[in-house]
Known about the structure:
signal; 47 residues; 1 helix; single chain; mainly alpha
Amino acid sequence: MKTKKYMIALAIFGGALFTAQASNLINLDGQTTTEIKRSSIKIPAGG
């Protein structure tokens, strides 16, 4: 029973850490944008 409680606590703690890390990676502040730079698009000569 003790082991089960420790495993549940560890799972909750790990989930909280994962959520915090994922939100840092996503960067919800809008500082990084996913834009396509016009200069990087090359149109082939045939079409």
